[in-house]
Write a structure and sequence with these properties.
Family: Belongs to the ABC transporter superfamily.
Protein name: Amino acid/amide ABC transporter ATP-binding protein 2, HAAT family
CATH architecture: 3-Layer(aba) Sandwich
CATH superfamily: P-loop containing nucleotide triphosphate hydrolases
Shape: globular
Structural class: alpha/beta
Bound molecules: adenosine-5'-triphosphate
Number of domains: 1
Number of strands: 10
InterPro entries: AAA+_ATPase (IPR003593), ABC_transporter-like_ATP-bd (IPR003439), ABC_transporter-like_CS (IPR017871), BCAA_Transport_ATP-bd_LivF (IPR052156), P-loop_NTPase (IPR027417)
Pfam family, one: ABC_tran
Order of helices and strands: EEEHEEHEHHHHEHEHEEHH
Strand content: 25-35%
GO molecular function: ATP binding; ATP hydrolysis activity; branched-chain amino acid transmembrane transporter activity
Oligomer: single chain
CATH topology: Rossmann fold
């Protein structure tokens, strides 16, 4: 469904991605792992059209196969790819409900056959959001803001969602809720690309993992394969919880 080939991107003269290759299939939860600064967020920004890039990013949308390179972020969102950036990107002065309804407007078209993601889905996965529906998003705790950011993106009805460091700064109980959220997405056939620093969290929920190093994918396999190779972790990952 998403095929990334020979992707190059960076910031001005700083070349960060040096030919990234990977694929994501429907219902996959793929963890993109690597040391700090290895280029995980840059990969997400390049796929979303937020920074200039070269290479190929093929996406099978409802209308057929399209190349995303050179498209604008709003077009990419409408084609069915959601993005939850590390800073969560919610509107702090709007209420929880207003944030969710805005998310509905920014996403792709709902097909007649697909029920799509509804407010009730957000409420049932994260009941605290319903309780706080009329509260300004800026007044929520960090964990609640993360829940809101995840649900807001889902209101756009993406088939693939790129989630950057969702566990960052969250209490362990909240991290478990985020994990349950991702497993609920998989049940609906939504694919996830998870940029994560916490190895244990990522490997518990992912069915595949990619390791980034030197601006490329240096490993693509299952969590079990990664865990079986201590050299890989030593070489490409920091010790992470
Ligand atoms: N806006 C920017 N301008 C210039 N350089 C940047 C910018 N954003 C990131 N970089 C640099 O690009 C490299 C890759 O950063 P990126 O954020 O993609 O890494 P990461 O793997 O997501 O790790 P982290 O979680 O630490 O951000 C780093 O060297 C970083 O300093």
């Amino acid at each position: 469904m998403l095929e990334v080939r020979d992707l190059h991107a960076g910031y001005g003269k700083s070349h960060v991605l040096h030919g990234v290759d990977f694929c994501i299939q429907p219902g996959d939860i793929v963890a993109l792992l690597g040391r700090n600064g290895s280029g995980r967020s840059t990969t997400a920004k390049a796929i979303m059209g937020l920074i200039a890039c070269q290479g190929m990013v093929r996406w099978s949308a409802a209308a057929g196969m399209v190349d995303l390179v050179g498209r604008k972020p709003f077009e990419i969102a409408r084609l069915g790819i959601g993005y939850v950036p590390e800073n969560r990107d919610i509107f702090p002065r709007l209420t929880v409900l207003q944030n969710l309804l805005l998310g509905q407007k920014s996403g792709g078209q709902r097909s007649a056959s697909a029920a799509g993601w509804m407010l009730d889905d957000a409420w049932s996965l994260f009941p605290v959001l319903r309780e706080r529906a009329a509260v300004q998003a800026g007044r929520l705790s960090g964990g609640e803001q993360q829940m809101l950011a995840l649900c807001r993106t889902m209101m756009g009805n993406p088939q693939l969602v790129l989630i950057d460091e969702p566990s960052e700064g969250l209490a362990p109980q909240m991290v478990q809720q985020v994990a349950r959220f991702m497993l609920a997405l998989r049940e609906r056939g939504v694919a996830v690309l998870l940029m994560e620093q916490k190895l244990q969290f990522a490997l518990e929920i992912a069915n595949r993992c990619l390791l980034m190093g030197h601006g490329r994918i240096v490993f693509d396999g299952t969590p079990a394969q990664l865990l079986a190779d201590a050299t890989l972790s030593r070489q490409w990952l920091e010790v992470a919880g």
